[in-house]
Amino acid sequence: MIESQPPNLPADAPLADSSSDIFRSTSLRPLAKLLGALHPVWAFTPDGRLAYISSACGRWLGVDPEKLLGLSIASSVEDRLVESQPFSILLAPPSGLSDTAKVRRVYSPQGEGRDCLFVPLSAEDGLGVLAIADVGLAVVDHQWSDYERLMDGLRRHLAQAARFPNAVISLGTSLRARKLARQIEVAATSRSHVALRGPQGSGQEIVARMIHALRADNAGPFVAIDGPLMDEELLDASTSQVVAQLMEVELSRATIFVRDIEQMPGDAQQRLELMLANFPGRLCVIASTTRGCEELLTALTASLATAVTEYELEIAPLSARIEDIPLMAAALLQRRRLTGETRAAQISREVLDRLVVYPWPGNYDELVAAIRNAARQCRGETLQMEHLPLAIRTYGGVREETDSRAGKEELQALDELLAETEKNALQRALTKYRGNRAAAARALGITRSRFLRRQEQLGVRWPNTN
Amino acid sequence: MAEHKLIGDWGSQTPSVPVTQSPPGSEWSLWIVEEGTRWQQIMRVLGERFVGSVAMQCCRVEPRAVLTEIGQPRCSVVLWELSPENIGECCPLIAALSRRNERPLQLVTFVARMGIPSRGYSELALTCRQVGADWVVRQPEDMPLVMRLIANRLCREFKGAGDLDK
Q: Which among B110, B124, B145 has the least Cβ separation from residue A234?
């Protein structure tokens, strides 16, 4: 399983403060160390890299401080970036921090919030910002502006979302699941463009977000756009903030996820191509498509097609991963339970059987929706058949009904076949014995009365008027 | 062959994309989550002006009701007016809707009384996009461009419906 963040540490794990060479040479080191012994403390260099993080901070965030050292949140503190990486978002100082100290509530991935004081430092100190959690904030006259409250709400959501990495799609023991997990890891190790090929609903966007989250610490923002809806102007407008950031901050990076890139109009393709040329190695495109590489080469401009097919990752339809479905369903339910949406903790055998039998035309998205709806309806601890969406619940029943109807048609056909055979036999016997029904009955081995009854029922005449 | 009709008019910003004549009885729905009625009034006027060939159903909804209300009609657009008070409630809903199979187009704007520092706007907009919003609308003047996006979406949806009918 791929984790988008380092695993949580046990409360008693031995941790030490971590500091970079820059921090060791600063005059603020003794003060920070003193504060760090009591409070979670961290410090950034002027170019926005984490230079010091105390062990108390590591314990609060549930991560080894050593792993966070050097994490980039900006190349300048004032124009800092919004990172997709959870810890970059969590630890980043508030916007517009220039002369006066500011307070921001910071949430750990576990949801524990603390008021933190961010102190801007001068260049002579060698540091950009020093952050201290839980210090006596009464001394700071701070008014939360509406803007800060809004940003705080958004950050809090992103931090909580990062707590539940959406790696369910690559769960499983099947060959395809293992291949998908491996391919995601490979795609995350480089900054190359990626084409995600798979049927509709197979979770391309989730895979794209996973790749982005797993990439190096300075992966930058992730912006998704609908390829078919774009034209030149719309593409410019919808990516304007990303482009502005790439232009303003020299080392920043960004990822654009393009849904259904093969249906993107030509002018938008050319504009995207131009953007990639303007920011080589910094702007990355992850594109979802239902077509293969060769077809993409005909649907896209040559340069864009070459770029996005640098690395192709195939996502199999869910129906091809039957053995993974129970595990994925259980993981999705567990996730719902952890977020407090449901009490249900397990799935009944009957439901699991049905999930495996169902063909999943909507692929992974349909499975997610089915578990979400079922979890909402379930009041107990076990998901039962009645909690499943109607289409899935009745799938087997409909098939059985169809089968029985087909069987009925087969029986009717057999009756007709027998009647036809019997009619022909009666006709042939009457012809042979020139209308003598007693002789015909004897020849067929039945009584005369039965012969007469069947003759009447089947409408056999002699001489044959038909 | 489906007929095409040019939609709307906004001076030089006339949308270039024709909306395929919608199937009979079809409509698009705009769900607005806001404190007052500001965006409802703006969108009623602009919606008719820009996407006039397709009936628009414009409703104001409570954040909690969005998940249950939405999803019935084929084409849905949700406009979220975010404020410091409703951000906690709206964020998970925006994220949840962005993960849906039949994903609606989600526009985000900010409550008018809020003063957003110009340096902070870009950061705010990017963070909203990361949560799951498709577009961040700063002011009503941005709407012609957004309407073009909506028109493109409708065009695509109704073309799809036409193909299905065949």
A: B145
